[in-house]
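In this supplementary section we document a worked example of the pipeline. Step one takes a protein sequence of length 105 as its only input; no multiple sequence alignment statistics are reported here. Step two produces a three-dimensional model, which step three serialises into structure tokens for compact storage. The input and output of this example are shown verbatim.
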Amino acid sequence: QAGVPKHTSLFPVLHPSSSVAMASVAASQLSKEQKEELLCTYAALILHDDGADITPQAMTDLIKAANCTVEAYWPTLMAKMIKNVGMEGLIKMGSGGGGGGGGGG
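The serialised model returned by step three reads:
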């Protein structure tokens, strides 16, 4: 598909027939909602990495190119959150880093 980032090979771990484990949980053990949220997260990260606009349509196109589907509200919700918080801010939140050191006594 023209205009679709090349990273769609990352999505097979969430394909319904996949048994590949992500972290300590196999994709087959995730709920439908968890899989759809991860698909949108991956799509947003791929678009961000490619320097593309993170829009609901771009996310949907990327997810479809990976032969996956999500409920229509997910890309819209994710894109709105990214617009409000910013991708860099969300990445920092998800990384768990940045906590200050404890005070000495």
